[in-house]
Specification:
Blueprint lengths: L1 H6 L6 E5 L2 E4 L5 E4 L2 E5 L4 H13 L10 H10 L11 H27 L14 H14 L4 H6 L1 E8 L6 E8 L13 H13 L3 H20 L1
Antiparallel strand pairs: 1-4, 2-3, 5-6
Helix pairs in contact: 2-3, 4-5
Protein name: ubiquitinyl hydrolase 1
EC number: 3.4.19.12
Catalytic activity: Thiol-dependent hydrolysis of ester, thioester, amide, peptide and isopeptide bonds formed by the C-terminal Gly of ubiquitin (a 76-residue protein attached to proteins as an intracellular targeting signal)
């Protein structure tokens, strides 16, 4: 399914629209930004290489596949994965998904810059004044869209706060591509834990068990001799 979603970005021409809305300026004046639409360019190198890698892995070929090109693309963006050192696979997957997402998001940001009269390669950090806030406003709306990798991996963490006085409740949604959870041993209720400990205490040791088995074998031999 992920490969199908990535393939949809392989060609340029995909239409999108950002809703716009109200934005507060530095002078506290609220302005209404119009919807912004445009057409995206085709996918970028890392996304294309990931799709090629997934396609090769699903081809059913018998030979071993070496994802050298994907690793090279990732290292060019995140040098910490170079040098032949060992890394946690979960950490690599997390960075890979984030890098693909960021690369896809740049396609939207390029259109936003062009629509606002800038060169598509302009660094938003170098823009000054209200234009910088407008770029950031539309960029935030683009980042909230469900991009290809997020359609497979994205989840939502909902935080709920309730005032103990007025009981007003507020919710906050946080999106994530992966979620690390602690692994802990399942704790038994106190009563069951005590019973389990009693059973364990009454259980004979390995040495005692072997001794009893040897005595049983000797007894059986004597009975056969008679």
């Amino acid at each position: 399914y992920l490969l199908e979603l990535l393939d949809e970005t392989s060609e340029g021409g995909q239409y999108f629209q950002l809703p716009g809305g109200k934005m507060t300026q530095e002078n506290k004046e609220v302005i209404e930004l119009q919807p912004l639409d445009g057409v995206l360019e085709k996918w970028r190198p890392l996304t294309a290489t990931l799709a090629q890698t997934l396609s090769e892995l699903q081809s059913g070929r018998a030979e071993v596949y070496n994802p050298r090109m994907l690793h090279s693309r990732l290292v060019s963006k995140m040098p910490q994965f170079g040098g032949g050192d060992q890394h946690d696979s979960h950490e690599l997957l997390r960075h890979l998904l984030e890098a693909v997402r960021e690369e896809d998001l740049r396609r939207y940001k390029s259109v936003i810059l062009e629509k606002l009269g800038f060169n598509c390669k302009t660094d938003p950090a170098t823009v000054e004044g209200e234009q910088k806030k407008i770029i950031k406003f539309y960029g935030q709306q683009a980042s909230e869209m469900l991009l290809p990798t997020e359609q497979v991996f994205r989840g939502v963490l909902v935080s709920t706060l309730q005032c103990q006085i007025c009981e007003h409740t507020s919710h906050r949604d946080e999106f994530f591509l992966d979620l690390s959870l602690p692994i802990s041993e399942k704790q038994l209720p106190p009563l069951l834990r005590r019973k389990a400990e009693e059973i364990e205490d009454n259980k004979p040791s390995k040495h005692q068990t072997k001794k009893e088995k040897r005595a049983e074998r000797k007894k059986n031999k004597k009975q056969k001799g008679h």
